[in-house]
Amino acid sequence: MSKLIFEHSQKGKSSNIIKTTKAPIKSLPKELVRQEPIGLPEIAEIDVVRHYTQLSTLNFGVDSGFYPLGSCTMKYNPKINEDMSALSEFANVHPLQDESTIQGILELLYNMQQHLNSIFGYDAFTLQPVAGAHGELTGLLIIKKYFESKSESFRNIILIPDSAHGTNPASATSVGYRTKSIPSGPRGGVDIEALKKVVSSTPNLAGLMLTNPNTLGLFDENIIEIAAIIHQAGGLLYYDGANANATLGITKPAELGFDVAHINLHKTFATPHGGGGPGSGPVGVTKELAPFLPGPMITKTANGYTFNNPAQSIGKVHSFYGNVGVVIKAYAYIVTLGSQGLREVSENAIINANYMMERLKPYYTIPFGFRTCKHEFVISMSKEKKEHGVRALDVAKRLIDYGFHPPTIYFPLIVSECLMIEPTETESRESLDTFCDAMIAISKEIRETPELLLEAPHNTPVKRLDEAKAVKEPKLTFASFCK
Amino acid sequence: MKYSPITEIDKTIMFEEMKITGFSSLVEDISVKTEISHIPDLSEMEVKSHFQSLIQKNIIGSKTFLGAGAYNHYIPSVINHIAGRSEYYTAYTPYQPEISQGTLQAIFEFQSMICSLTGMDIANASMYDGATAVAEAAILACSSTNRSKIIVSETLHPEYIKVLETYLINRNISVEITNIHQNQFDENTAAVVNACPDFFGVIKDYRSVIDAIHSCKGLYIAVADPISLALLESPGKLNADIVVGEGQPLGIPISFGGPYLGFMAAKKEYLRLLPGRIIGATIDKEGKQAFVLTFQTREQHIRREKATSNICSNQALCALRATLYMALMGDKGMTSVAQRCLENNRYFKETISKIPGFHINENEITYKEFVLQTPVPAEEINKKLLADFGMIGGLPLSKYFPERNNEMLICTTEILTFDDINQFVSICKSFAA
Q1: Does the N terminus or the C terminus of chain A have fewer Cβ atoms within 10 A?
Q2: Is residue A93 within 8 Å of B58, Cβ to Cβ?
Q3: B96, B290 contact by CB (below 8 A)
Q4: Is 0.90 surpassed by the pTM of this model?
């Protein structure tokens, strides 16, 4: 394994970033001055560069190979978008400059609000939330504030299907709501009868959070009826846009009855995931909910672009205006594709997923294979587990040997031993075929040489890790390491 | 099609495999179909010229005196080159540790450096930004103490206060914004949130406040500027319980307010209440040292509604930048940057206070920002500074405090030279009373 950066440290080594100053610290009283060294490593610039270059080779990114990580939409991140966001007049513009000096960036942000409105059918979009979960928090706060304004604060229950992402219930709790789980029906969507029953026994219903297509990759066929049930009970419908890559130019959440929606720019709009962030999670709302958006919004006037705070705003959820650097990349993506190109994104994402599902059907259990999927689909390995002792985890690790990033595993929770596969539109047919061929070869290995899977991955810098040890003997810093 | 390598021939072959005649069979279950109203498409070359026309409408200035939560520190060249490696930026959260050791080890090093800097035991893999890190720290304090009142210094960044209020009020946590002193805590106080340096650049000795909140069994949440900690006694040494702040000064561009980097460090007893990702060291099955996401039972994908937070990401790429910054600068470089900020601050205050009509509070010790009282509205000085020298002036305090018209918050990072400061002062002379 690579040495830690601290282990490269040698007294006297340094880089030449800034001249050391000899100015005495006159202006600080002694009791405020740091007494001990910080403890950062002392390293020459070339060794910093080599260390982090070497570390990068231990990673796998979208540029390294096929990354069919379900519900994460690991599509190609166009390079032009990186360049546009790094332009000095964007990268170096300060959020508190006078409005007359920032008309360019305000125009971009305004255009972005407008484009998102037309793509998803809303009246207003805030760009402030910086992640999907952050968008959920924002959307739920808007719902809460809306009910306060109608003197219906008693509404404090959010319904969440059992196929939902864990962030949904966690976000609902964050705004002081309680949650009720709704089971899925035999065709993979919300169980309508169960929903009706729960709604009729929930007078304090605030709303339903729905991912559509859901985490099984299925479009909920009953969405219009679901919307009617929630709205008739006085609740609001929330759209988790994690899977919006299947909807561009095909349908719009606003027209399906969703009152509020968050979108992940780092999924649908091709901004890189960065190894965990930064992302961006804009929230769109209907006209009724627009007064509650976080401020400021960007508006266009006769004298140019300006900031504007919605009348009954929930307040702020992030300092300044959110992850503008990420929004710039997504904006470049949208203007590159245009409305027709965006439609083709979703068409090809859906074609790719269905093609893979069809090719793998003879070899694996596909619980909802009797329906067409949208941008992703799920496989269950529970039969293989029972018969051969091989789990979803083992298949994932074996795929690494074949040169792929594994699919999402053990999610959604309602499919046992689940593999969730999302190819995205940026993969070629050859790339899909190579992956399917590997999956088919693995299905043979499961029966004939299961140990190959149980011991996988074989050629990675490290093998399977002892995760229990990481918790039992926590080592979370270099200092704890030395002890 | 742009970015999608699926050709019409591919589609024909794929439809055949699926035994369908066209795309429409795949979306029959979508009941409402709509189109996107016209957004024109641009070639890469056209995108560039569209962006050229946009950036011409921004003015970034040759130098800037604007700070207030977003700081123009020098960014070493190495950072863009390494953070621009797509092995880092096109990867997802490191769920598969065998092919993610690059991100995992870099973030482990980040956690280690943040702990050294703040003097704390543990740190998470980062939060969205400084403001949300403060809010999450306050929530942690309430969970830990089972109390529901947070006392917040009125000198905390106004944007942080707004975010804190949004996060806490909806959890029925009361937020009291006040002038912090040692006699205001009781058995309901979960924590006090206090920044040093504060929004106005002021640094003070808060030992007595820390002792006072501890004697009420509440927590002290320190909000710190990371580079200032090269000079200032670490919050850990002063016995703070949680340290949070904005990591943007550590090699992250200003970028109109984001993406930034919230950091959060704490005493080790708060490990299981910490929000966000945490990276730990372990071994693989052959005994090799390796890194992994750990203590995940705190998190939403396992605990759902009982999670410590709804956050399910970190600002990994920004954390990588901060790690590179700290590795390149070392103790010596960080201290030099902090000293230059301090020295520029001292020089600016000394020079400007000689100009009639301009005043500073001489009793305050400030680090890289200070409040300047001006004889005319702050905007007028900024206008002239931009027109004459192409420089961006300080923040008119009226932006956050409408009654404070003739005041400006000036930022003095290491980027500025004494000549730059002299130019600013020469502009002020023309407004001298």
Answers
A1: C
A2: yes
A3: no
A4: yes
Query: What would the pLDDT profile of A154-213 be if each residue is shown by its tens digit?
Result: 999 999 999 999 999 999 999 999 999 999 999 999 999 999 999 999 999 999 999 999
Q: Which two tokens stand for residue B8?
A: 């019409």
Distance CA B162, CA B333 (A): 34
Q: Touching check for A410 and chain B: CB below 8 Å?
A: no
Nearest CA distance, A262 vs chain B (angstrom) = 15
Q: Considering only alpha carbons, which residue of chain A is nearest residue B3? A: A426
Instruction: Report how far apart the first and last C-alpha atoms of chain B are (Å, whole number).
Output: 66
As for how many domains chain A has, the answer is 1
B97 touches A at CB < 8 Å: yes
Q: Scan residues 18-57 of A and list those with Cβ closer than 8 Å to B.
A: 18-21, 23, 25-29, 31-43, 45, 48-49, 51-53, 55-57
List B residues 182-201 in contact with A (Cβ-Cβ < 8 A): none
Q: Tell me, what's the ipTM?
A: 0.98
- Report the run of H or E that residue A149 belongs to, with start and end: helix A132-149
The phi, psi pair for B317, rounded to 5°, reads -70, -35
Q: Which two tokens stand for residue B430?
A: 């023309």
**Per the CB < 8 Å rule, is B333 touching A248?**
no
For residue A148, tell me if it sits in a domain.
yes
CB contact under 8 A, B29 and A219: yes
Q: Please tell me the distance in Å from B391's CA to the nearest CA on chain A.
A: 11
- DSSP, collapsed to helix, strand or coil, labels residue B184 as coil
In a domain, A273, yes or no: yes
**The CATH number of the domain where A219 resides is what?**
3.40.640.10
Question: Is A316 inside any structural domain?
Answer: yes
- Write out the two tokens for A462: 């490290």
- A379's enclosing H/E stretch is strand A377-380
pLDDT digits (tens, 9 = 90+) for A365-404: 999 999 999 999 999 999 999 999 999 999 999 999 999 9
Q: Which domain holds residue A201?
A: 79-337
Domain assignment present for A482: no
Assess contact for B140 and B274: CB atoms under 8 A.
Answer: yes
The answer to whether the beta carbons of residues B101 and A1 sit under 8 Å apart is yes
Q: Would you state the torsion angle of the CA atoms of residues A319, A325, A326, A331, taken in this order, to the nearest 10 degrees?
A: 120
Q: Which residues pair with A184 in a beta bridge?
A: A190
CB of A436 within 8 Å of any CB in chain B?
Answer: no
